[in-house]
Amino acid sequence: MTDNPSPLKFHVPEPEVRPGGTPDFSNVPIPKAGSVDRPPVDVDPRTIRDLAYSIIRVLNREGDAVGPWAGTLTDEEQLDGLRHMMTLRTFDARMQMAQRQGKTSFYMQHMGEEAVSCAFRKALNPGDMNFPTYRQAGLLIAGGYPMVDMMNQIYSNEKDPLKGRQLPIMYSAKEHGFFSISGNLTTQYIQAVGWAMASAIKGDTKIAVGWVGDGATAESDFHAALVFASTYKAPVILNIVNNQWAISTFQGIARGGSGTFAARGLGFGIAALRVDGNDYLAVHAVAKWAAERARSNLGPTLVEYVTYRVGAHSTSDDPSAYRPKTESDAWPLGDPVIRLKNHLIRRGQWSDERHKQTEAEILETVISAQKEAESHGTLHAGGKPSTRDMFEGVYAEMPPHLRRQRQKAGV
Ligand SMILES: Cc1ncc(C[n+]2csc(CCOP(=O)(O)OP(=O)(O)O)c2C)c(N)n1
Ligand SMILES: [Mg+2]
Q1: Quick check: CB of 72 below 6 Å from ligand 1?
Q2: What sequence ranges are listed for the domain 2-oxoisovalerate dehydrogenase E1 alpha subunit N-terminal (predicted)?
């Protein structure tokens, strides 16, 4: 026993810089592109623990695709990928503006994170099911879901596929492998594991994918999902999008002492990888690897995408209150659109002129989808879902209290 015990303390992690300071990511080790091994998919997870602490990268500074994870996509597929990311960016810009114009109450952008959802989608098969958060609209764009339907949902208009029952951007498209988004963070993680187990129970071949942000890994559902995925070796991919911020809270709070988010998988014996989330080719290669494991009954894979949320958390947020304005410029992994663009130019498949021309074409397509959506109404103008719709399609059998409310409303 110590005679003079010192007073106890606990530790609150602090971000490196605050507004007004100079952004500094020198403490973020970035391995060279091509330097991380690609193990066989049937590897014993215990032998690849180092992959949870490194970063798998394919595109180098010069724009070449290098190393063992390169080569999963043809030029044609990469050009498609570039177009998807550019479309998502333009879609975001228009919808952000629509919110400022009062046409919808709320919007959330993907700026800087476009590669994660766009590239991941291309590793899936029809029938596979994502359990996304609000920051994976690229799954829909890259999967060919009509943009007009996304906008109808954002505007809660008469053509809103969800009939005004969900917050704007909380899409749901079963036939596109996009499970209804829940505003209650991380609930979708356990659902993904359960869906994967159900798929196996049915003897089906479809896999599930859970998505969570860095901040939301702090929810207990995250850990419960890992227990089930690990014990039952569920055919599931568990994605963590580490975009450095959870609204105003920096990633160090949720990460705590584990070193990386991927490393959370190690204690569960789950294969855990970290990947450059701003590298379309690396995201696709890792997604394919994880999907093959799930499809071959080799168990779950936990993947951390290292990226950066360039925009505000949502239209209700102002990041200048908690981080330096220039922080995104200092982010060492660059911009996913520019990196793939430069790679394709280097391969002689693309040019600055074609890029500009495509930007203009995409803008035109997005604007014309927007006009069509707006002809069906926006938040305060034009067509709306009927009040009756509010009561339908949620319960198989309407509970008595809702039946009473509906009678009262006379619909
Ligand atoms: C259970 C729960 N807690 C808190 C919130 C409020 N909330 C909405 S988004 C968010 C931040 C999430 O950050 P992160 O998981 O890193 O995802 P990101 O927004 O960065 O993509 C919080 C705290 C919520 N919606 N649900
Ligand atoms: Mg985050």
Answers
A1: no
A2: 7-45
